[in-house]
Each structure stands twice: as C-alpha cells, then as structure tokens.
Amino acid sequence: MTARREASTPPRLPGYEYLRVLGLGGFADVFLYQQELPRREVAVKVLLAGSLDDEVRTRFQQEANLMAQLSHHPSIVTIYHAAIAADGRPFLVMEYCSRPGLAERYRQERISVAEALRIGIRLASAVETAHRAGILHRDIKPANVLTTDFGWPALTDFGIAATTGHGGGATVGMSIPWSPPELLGEHPTGDERSDVYSLAATIYSLLAGRTPFEVAGGQNTAQQLVSRIERSPLPPTGRDDVPWGLQDVLERAMAKHPARRFASAAAVARALQQVEADLRLPITPLDLTDESDSGQDRGLPLESPDGGREDATRLRSIVSVAPEATAVPPPGADEPTRMRGVTSVAPELAPVRVGPVRPAGPVFVAPAPLEAVEPVVTEQRGRARLAAGIVSGVVVLAAVVAIGAAALRGAPDDGPSATSEFTQGDDPTRIQDVVPAPAGLEGVRQADGSVVFTWENPDPQDGDQYLWGVLPATGEPVLAVVDVASATVPADAAAGQVCVEVAIVRADRRVSADPAQGCAP
C-alpha cells in the first residue's frame, strides 16, 4: 500500500493567515486560512503543479470564472477569489464548510432515506445548474460534497483539475467507484449523463454505506470494480426502508448505457421528488433559475437555431391523453407536442399490435385507443411557465403541473377539447396525484424467441391501463395501450437485447410522470 503523502507547503497569500490543513486530494491540497478583511475563515484550494505554462494559466482562469458564475447556487460551494500564488501555483479561495462532509458521514452513520432524498434533489439542482452553464463536473462523489454551516450539501471541485494538463479529458480526477462505464474504457467519452450516473452513485453510497459495486468483506481492487461497473447489475442497497421507487430511480440513473439513463440531472431530481411524494414526505424544492426552469428540466431545449425555444410543448412530467387518437407515429413525424415516450397523433394511424400473455403462447390484439397528449402549463416555485401547442389541428386543454410547491389545477375552457378533467381537487400542492411508474418491470425470453414483459401497479385504481412500447436504439418508441400488466415483444422484433418502456394510464387520462424502463437479454 502506498504511504499517504504529506501536504504541500501552504503558499503565502497577502491578506490571509494560514491556520491548518483541511484535506489532501489527487491534484490539490485544501488549507484553512483566516481572511483579514473581511475577517472570516476560508478554505483555500491550491493545485499541485511543478510548472504551469501560459496555456494552463489561461485555462485555469477561464475555469475559475465559470465556477464563479455558479457560486450563487445554494448547493454549490461559493468561490470568493482565484489567483496565482507567488510560487506559481493557482489557488481558489472558497467558502469554508465546517460540518462533516458526505465522505465522512456515509461510512460512519446510517443516513435516513428522507435525508438522502433531500441531499439528492439539492445536488441534482446544483449539477443541472452547472450543466446549463456548460460545465461537466466529472468527479461527483461523496468526498466532493461538503456540508455548509446550515446543513446544506455543497458541491465542489468542478473539474478544475481537468484544466491543469494532468491527463486531459473527462478522465482527469476520475474516481472509479462512482464512475460510469463509458469513462472506464480505453477511449473514454462522457457527457451530462455521465454526471447523472455519478450523482446517483453518490446517493446510493449514502443509503448503502458503501460504494455501489463494492462487495462488503470481499476483494474490491480497481480491476474488480471496473469489471462489476461494466457488467454487473446494480445490487440492492440492503436496506428494508429503501422503497422500490427509489431503487428504480437509482437503477435507471446508473444504467450501463447512457441512452437508458435520465437525460438530465433535473429529471433525476423530479424522480426523487416523486419518491418523496410517495412516502408522504415534504417535497424538497428544485433550485433552478427562471430561465433554466423554462426548458431543460422538463426535457425542453432552451433555444432553437432561430433563437426561440424549439418544440415548446415537449414535457417529461404529467401528460393527458384524449380518446380521438389510436397510436403513436414513428420518429420523424411532424409532432408539435412530442414528449419523451408519448406523442399526440391523428386517429387514422395504425396501432401497434400487442396483447396479454396467454398460456398457449402470445396472442396479439389491437390495443385500446391511445389518447392525444394535451399541452401543459407548469408552475414551479411560484413562477408560471406556459407550454402550449396544437394537437392534430385542435387546440386542447392547458393545465398546471404540480411539482414541489407548484400548483396543479384545471385550465380555462378552450372549446370542446378543453375540459376540467385535469383538476386535482382543492389542494393545489397535491404532488401525490402524480401517477407513479410501474414497479418490478422485467422481461423473460420464451422458447419461441419472443420476450414477455411483466410489471406491477404500485397504486392500482379503477380504469387503469398501461402505455408501453419497445425502446429503439435511436428515436422515440412507438407506444400502445394494454389493459393488463404484461406485454409481449414478438421474436422478429426481439433479436438481441430488447428494452421497453411502460407507463400507467389513469381513467382520467393522466400518465406516469416518469415511465419505467427495463431490458431483457
């Protein structure tokens, strides 16, 4: 075992008095200083670098400026100052977080599910804010989450080491136990979904008291961890108080293939909020600015090439279906109200043929009519945002989606298609009315080569149906409605691994806020 190195010599900084070492990292040391004016204790991160050329200095300054843009976020460590010390080492002066960080806590104490959810949502909002500023964190893990004096998680180390020339690319500063498979290969590639994986892996660690693929009492070498991360399914946390919904969120966020994960950190936060709602816990707000809230957290591109918001009715949360349409068109159709996995269509399109599982083999029947998606108005943290569109040439209902402290209520009458069926009662904050995702989705390959998928309805209600479809390698799935909690993918469409998506459809035409996804080999 390599001996732990000693801290580097703290630099002399005018206006600051050195107090003690706070921590050592792979690319930097952190020291506690006393700032003289204004007088306060600050953490100073000093990069380890024998020599820094002009290019590295410039890149460091650019990265420091980007980090400063994020400092207003309540779950991101505040940056006070950045400069180059007299000895040539770049340094950052940061907020001093005096409470134990997550690295100190997750192995030493049992963190409650409620607290893990709060931490996860706040961290997800921090990661989403960074992504929208064009910053990938690259190294989300418990050691990079501090705790403020007020008990809030505070994300730090936004890829600064990656700008100093120590290896370059997304692999710099990478920590194997929390890294996704795509960053562990010979030619690593990563994007926002890589941060989504690491975010979920961090939440998992808080619940399990260990890293996700660590075997308690077993061998956990780097090679063994990499092999498990790349090939093994995510093990359960081992806690009876972790609900299936939370395990499902973690499994999806940590899917082996990035395309199977949540597309954004905001989507992870929404899913965690739903778990809070299912547990009847207070809903933790998602801290995003008005400009950010108006787009990507609901699956919306912020801007289109012409400067406006493209596809302004694309949503990921609550949807409505209307009885006129029968199926969803394949990708590429003109669909102004397309959302992830659900799209409004004209009634003349042919349905996908699916049906329940029978003992003598699968029998395929025409599904119940798939109803058109209605546009929705979303209001989060008291800020209203409109997502309006035209569905099959008919202007349909606008409603308010409740997330956190947002309101969910009926919209004004717009004619025959505008009804009050979206009204959720007198309580405008009833996020528990959000339709849950199916549980226990799994597929079993049959002797004839077909795959039978089954699932459970965690909150069955009269009139429930299920919206399902096969997930293609690219594009959107073609969806159909079935009345039973099973569906069969025929052999000619089930060659190799096959993955499906399933949502619950209520009698009042509400659909699961976050459909379940599952695969079969």
What does this structure look like?
The protein has 521 residues and is of the alpha+beta class. The chain has helices spanning 54-70, 102-105, 113-132, 192-208, 222-231, 244-253, 265-278, 290-293, and strands at residues 16-24, 28-35, 40-47, 79-84, 90-95, 145-147, 153-155, 377-380, 383-386, 390-391, 394-395, 400-401, 439-445, 451-456, 465-470, 480-482, 486-489, 498-505, 516-520. The chain is elongated, with a radius of gyration of 25 Å.
Entry keywords:
8 helices; 19 strands; 5-stranded antiparallel beta sheet; Transferase(Phosphotransferase), domain 1; alpha+beta; kinase; 521 residues; Immunoglobulin-like; 3 domains; 4-stranded antiparallel beta sheet
Give a concise summary.
With 521 residues, this protein is α+β, with helices and mostly antiparallel strands.
How many domains would you count in the coordinates? 3
Oligomer: single chain
Unreliable residue runs: 160-172, 291-432
The largest sheet has its strands arranged as: 1-2-3-5-4
Give the CATH H-level superfamily of the largest domain. Immunoglobulins
Keywords: ATP-binding, Kinase, Membrane, Nucleotide-binding, Serine/threonine-protein kinase, Transferase, Transmembrane, Transmembrane helix
Binding site for ATP: 45
EC number: 2.7.11.1
Protein name: non-specific serine/threonine protein kinase
